[in-house]
Write a structure and sequence with these properties.
By secondary structure, this protein is mainly alpha-helical. Helices cover about 75% and strands about 0% of the residues. The protein is built from four helices and no strands.
Length: about 80
């Protein structure tokens, strides 16, 4: 009884990961696609924020504690860099 109850959750966990052919299940595919979509969303946010930063006036930049040089350095970064 002990061996069966201990191994059963492990067997269930394994079947959720891959089917017989080693192909990813829809759940894992969904997770991968969700991560890709989240990454694209992050890139879009960075691009939007950097464009907005570049368009800010010197006074607005001072209000948030930046100078034009700092804003230009950040705005010139490619979207894929943090």
């Amino acid at each position: 009884m002990f061996a069966t109850s201990t191994l059963r959750p492990l067997a269930r966990e394994h079947t959720h990961r891959h089917d017989r052919g080693g192909v990813l299940h829809a759940g894992m595919l969904h997770q991968v696609l969700a991560q890709i979509a989240a990454q694209f969303g992050e890139w879009r946010r960075r691009l939007r924020d950097r464009r907005a930063l570049a368009a800010m006036s010197d006074r607005s930049l001072r209000d948030i504690g930046l100078i034009r040089y700092d804003a230009a350095v950040e705005a010139d970064k490619p979207f894929w860099r943090e």
